[in-house]
């Protein structure tokens, strides 16, 4: 089954780069939704061989992740884009081409990092740790280099996705209820962020977070 | 059972409160929930923790101390909220309907942080506190509040995502020992700690410190805190500073406990002391000449979080001092934010340069403000003097005595900085015709209670509390 898992992990990494490479907010959200689909299939691909042991939690976890990461959150973000009436990223801090280069370098760095930090218990797939690091780091890149509030939420989602991949090494340790709690937090978090974006766009006529800088000493 | 009640009841009552548009009914629910919560927490002090160490809900002595402070502060904040909501605030756009439900959910999430030993569930609860309190920060629909809410949501969520990664790393570090499958509970982790993979354990602690440290307001990760704590309504600021920062501190303590159990915790101590001093230094720089008194108190919180981090990092008797300081700081800072709300209502501005003659216009508030400022400044006979003294003593007697001198110097700068801003506000004559403003009883009784608490802790620490603090400190290697 690791064949499927490796394919999904590579897809996740490719979609991370796709998010960095686009300036259209709608494409960003769509790529993030596809990343959500790939991620939600990952538990099935990784643990499918041992399904008799994990069947119910793994299937439920996949369904939960699918509905939150691939359906509800993209809908929330698309609505935010519509209400705020923005289409594109405004002058990213780092130019688009350069940020793709940085992202590629980050992916390379992740593969190196995975050779240094070796899992004490072998991972179900050798790509798991490098892709988890790569998703995290590219998510950080999006967070710090983009100005539109919606893109920053997408960056935060990528960060969470990276953490989610790491979580796959610990299916035995984390109770199912807690996993659901983590997903619920993510869902409510993006919901509250969506409301905040709505209010920001109404109050300021933009969602450029760089211009949210009135509070200082 | 009591723990499940403490977590679930406020959450359910929050939903109930959502159904009522009437402010008075909402307040009645809030007060009832706060009182019942405090009584239940008090009953926990009598019962011994007997439940199985891997249960989802289980409280230890450290958690119980922090839960008690949270519950006490929540009741005080609820009482303060009564005149705050009923007698009109300085901003009429405020919508009271969301206020009570969000407060109750906030209480539920903070309770869960203290009442679980499962590190992943604790993480979910800490994130829950951010989500429940963000709408409270945005209570006044002003641009500043909106900006503060956005920074709070995004920075804390990102920080906390790193803490979740740290939690997973800890699980990975322990996974070398043949699959125990017992879950990410504190007892399992501490049991597994000596044989944990060191690189993963260290990475886990660093990530948890960065993640929860963001939430705790340790510099340089504090940038959201002054904005959020100054823009939130005063009773919410009191809870954010007095109760929520402690919850984040507790989360860091849990990871520190695992490091202590591993026997390899010098690096964790160094990091805590370092971040602690950076926090104190940054706070001092912004306390001096601060133009906004709510920001002044927010920076003072950053300073005090630094003091607590230093105390834990120094270890030994300073661990006890750090935990005692957490209690002291909560009482003083909640009181100060209540008083800030009174000043704001009377003067209609948070600018330290426009407010003059607080003692004349709001005599009770003015006197209490002076007392609580002296308390948080570390003047005897108030409680913070003793907790800071314990930390200072440990630093002087430790391997680097100059840290003690630096500690005292920073305390002195912070004290003088705050005094330089607050005393001109207290004295002088108020501008305008109105020379005396009304002070609703509950809006001065609650800070009075906080000041009395800080005074009592400075004169006599009840044996049950000192015993609990000592037990909690010994879990931190103190």
Q: Would you give an account of this structure?
A:
The complex is a heterodimer of chains A (217) and B (478). By secondary structure, chain A is an all-alpha fold. Chain A has one domain (2-212). Chain A is 76% helix and 0% strand. Chain A is built from seven helices and no strands. Chain A is globular. The termini of chain A are far apart. Chain B is mostly helical. Helices cover 76% and strands 0% of the residues of chain B. Chain B is globular, with a radius of gyration of 21 Å. The model of chain B has no long low-confidence stretch (mean pLDDT 92). The interface between A and B is large, with 45 and 56 residues.
- Poorly predicted runs of chain A are none
Order of helices and strands of chain A, N to C?
A: HHHHHHH
Task: State the oligomer.
Answer: heterodimer
- In total, the number of strands of chain B is 0
Overall mean pLDDT of chain B:
92
What's the order of the H and E elements of chain B? HHHHHHHHHHHHHHHHHHH
- Radius of gyration of chain B (CA) equals 21 Å
Number of domains of chain A: 1
Strand content of chain B: under 5%
Give the low-confidence spans of chain B. Answer: none
Radius of gyration of chain A: 18 Å
Q: What overall form of chain A do the CA principal axes indicate?
A: globular
Number of strands of chain A: 0
Total helices of chain B: the number is 19
Helix share of residues of chain B?
Answer: over 70%
Shape of chain B: globular
**Structural classification of chain A:** mainly alpha
* Pair with the biggest interface: A-B, 45 and 56 residues
Please give the structural blueprint.
The complex is a heterodimer of chains A (217) and B (478).
Chain A: H1 2-21, H2 25-47, H3 51-84, H4 96-116, H5 128-145, H6 149-167, H7 176-204
Chain B: H1 2-18, H2 23-44, H3 61-86, H4 99-114, H5 119-137, H6 143-174, H7 186-192, H8 198-216, H9 224-231, H10 234-262, H11 266-287, H12 293-314, H13 317-347, H14 358-361, H15 363-376, H16 383-397, H17 401-426, H18 441-459, H19 463-475
Helix pairs in contact in B: 1-2, 1-4, 2-3, 2-4, 3-4, 3-10, 3-13, 3-18, 4-5, 4-10, 5-6, 5-10, 6-8, 6-9, 7-10, 8-10, 8-11, 9-10, 9-12, 10-12, 10-13, 11-12, 11-17, 12-13, 12-16, 12-17, 13-15, 13-16, 13-18, 13-19, 15-17, 15-18, 16-17, 16-18
